[in-house]
Design goal:
The complex is a heterodimer of chains A (about 110) and B (about 110).
Chain A: E1 5-7, E2 10-13, E3 19-24, E4 31-37, E5 43-50, E6 53-56, E7 65-68, E8 75-79, E9 88-95, E10 103-104, E11 108-112
Parallel strand pairs in A: 2-11
Antiparallel strand pairs in A: 1-3, 3-8, 4-5, 4-9, 5-6, 7-8, 9-10, 9-11
Chain B: E1 4-7, E2 10-14, E3 19-25, E4 32-38, E5 45-51, E6 56-59, E7 62-67, E8 72-77, E9 86-93, E10 100-102, E11 106-111
The chains are: A mainly beta (about 110), B mainly beta (about 110).
């Protein structure tokens, strides 16, 4: 049973470009969460999605960031016009239902030059 | 919103010693408390968790205790080994919420 998958594992972008991060939840999991981890810091919640719905985006910056979890395919976290402060590790987690254990993917390490 | 404090930020022990990491939280309605271990460059991995209807849970060398009255919970690792060296994060999930609020992490170093 494959775990949570994320790609790419490493992403380099220049300032002003767009970054697209993908997350495929564990089989049977329909709840997806995105967290951001700055260097030497803890994880900060960004957004919680179920299929085709954003349930909680209270941790998402109001501008440049968006997330989706379509009926078919992976969840995508999109960052437009990236800035150096967006450099971080972005982790996706999934769970089979709400209030259940969250399992993390390997993360995407975004570097903005 | 929920606020989670974690102490200590670094912890150095000798192999075979015990290690204890403590977290406090602010929302008395919080009901789920997982602990994650993160090795350098790797994903956070769940090592143990506890729900608010339980006071203590143990899994081999790892245990978690929860004091709901005082709003704190602790991770206990006995007979530490060098491979226990990592950063450990506590997290809290509130009732009716799905997001996890994480502590700031404890860097554990186990010396042979």
């Amino acid at each position: 049973n494959a775990g949570v998958m994320q790609n790419p594992r490493h992403l380099v972008r220049r300032r002003g470009q767009e970054a697209r991060l993908r997350c495929s939840p564990m089989k049977g999991h329909s709840h997806v969460y995105w967290y951001r981890q700055l260097p030497e810091e803890g994880l900060k919640f960004m957004v919680y999605l179920q299929k085709e719905n954003i349930i909680d985006e209270s941790g998402m910056p109001k501008e440049r960031f968006s997330a989706e979890f379509p009926k078919e395919g992976p969840s995508i976290l999109r960052i437009q016009q990236v800035v150096r402060g967006d450099s971080a590790a972005y982790f996706c987690a999934s769970s089979p239902a709400s209030q259940e254990t969250q399992y993390f993917g390997p993360g995407t390490r975004l570097t903005v030059l | 919103g929920e606020n989670v404090e974690q102490h200590p930020s670094t912890l150095s022990v000798q192999e075979g010693d015990s290690a204890v990491i403590k977290c406090t939280y602010s929302d008395s309605a919080s009901n789920y408390f997982p602990w994650y271990k993160q090795e350098l460059g790797k994903r956070p991995q769940l090592i143990i968790d506890i729900r608010s209807n339980v006071g203590e849970k143990k899994d081999q060398r790892i245990a978690v205790t929860l004091n709901k009255t005082a709003k704190h919970f602790s991770l206990h690792i006995t007979e530490t080994q060098p491979e226990d060296s990592a950063v450990y994060f506590c997290a809290v999930q509130g009732a009716g919420f799905q997001k996890l609020v994480f502590g700031t992490g404890t860097r554990l170093l186990v010396s042979p």
